Amino acid sequence: MTASVNELITTAPGASCDADLAEGPWAFDLSPGYGPGASEDDVIPDPVVRPGQLPVAYQRMSDDELHARIRAAKEALGERLVILGHFYQRDEVVQHADFVGDSFQLANAALTKPDADTIVFCGVHFMAETADILARPEQHVILPNLAAGCSMADMADEDSVEAAWEELMELYADEDTSDGRASVVPVTYMNSSAALKAFCGRHGGIVCTSSNAATVLEWAFEQGRRVLFFPDQHLGRNTGKAMGVPLEQMPMINPRKPGLGVEPQELLDARVLLWPGFCSVHKRFTVAQIDQARAQHPGVKVVVHPESPMPVVDAADAAGSTDFIRKFVAASEPGDVIAIGTEINLVNRLAADYPDRTIFCLDPVICPCSTMYRIHPGYLAWVLDGLLEGEVRNEIVVDEDVATHAKVALERMLAALPK
Ligand code: SF4
Asked: Which residues bind iminosuccinate per the record (predicted)?
């Protein structure tokens, strides 16, 4: 049996990109992780367990004991409970999930379990927020570890986006909008706080995923002259480029600099205004890694996620969402060699699912999403035991006003079908 990513990290010193990961979950949990961008408007859970405060009894339980507790709680809770596991979660958690998918697939999967009164989201904070927005009012959404944020989501906070928006509105104030098209339409990637989804809902904007970004941009260009795309610069640039938008019409703004750090004429000529956010996992992929994979495995097929930098996407054979990558692998032939540029847990799972193919991660260093990694079976067991005791622990509750406006932007997205 192949070793799980977690086993590789904790048993092989220096194997991962972050030495703190090898210290084990409880030590790693003490480092900061719950960023303000992903939580600023949520109702503070009660009771709240801060990072590093999981009861010691759960920290000391063996893996076998934790898995047995989780299975027993699932059995006892039956249809009242649904556990969602993101593709990037470790195997030790995914094995307990009722559904495994990307953030949007999981939010929708929860809707197929109307009898469940609790949704346990094994993913990161913005995903649990989206599930709460789409869930029935009486359903509870739980994030097992509140420190599981998303560094990319935290790179765009509401205040900075509001300030940048005001500057842009001032600059575009004299533009002729008699054709009914707005000067600028805000588009937020799913990987953003509920507050930013609500911002888009309020300002005629929309949410996108990595599967439907091109369709969403087409929609946005029908509504306005240009798009303000946040937080991921790479998804924005890769999508715009694939749609034929010249690079010089996709300037990256700097919300901390006067005039957003871009010449006014460039802002006027822009079609896509990019926010300087990125995913710390996907930005690690390089063209040199692709060259090396091709040198070592002639005929290798390279597929990457569009959160990767543009030169990497350009050099790959294909680029697409996690679901696209899974389908790419499923459509390959036995004996094929496939190098993948996405999070290591998904790559390893695909390698295990297709043992007759050679599947490996482009990044030679093991670099899991360190915030996804914060969901450990210990947290899962603890929140499920809480449900058995009648206590909803680590509940994610999106403010009602935020949820109302965020839903508008999410519903616009639902109407823009993926290509
Ligand atoms: S993989 Fe990147 S974008 Fe996804 S949750 Fe982790 S940090 Fe955020």
From this structure: 86, 103, 189-191, 210, 305-307, 322
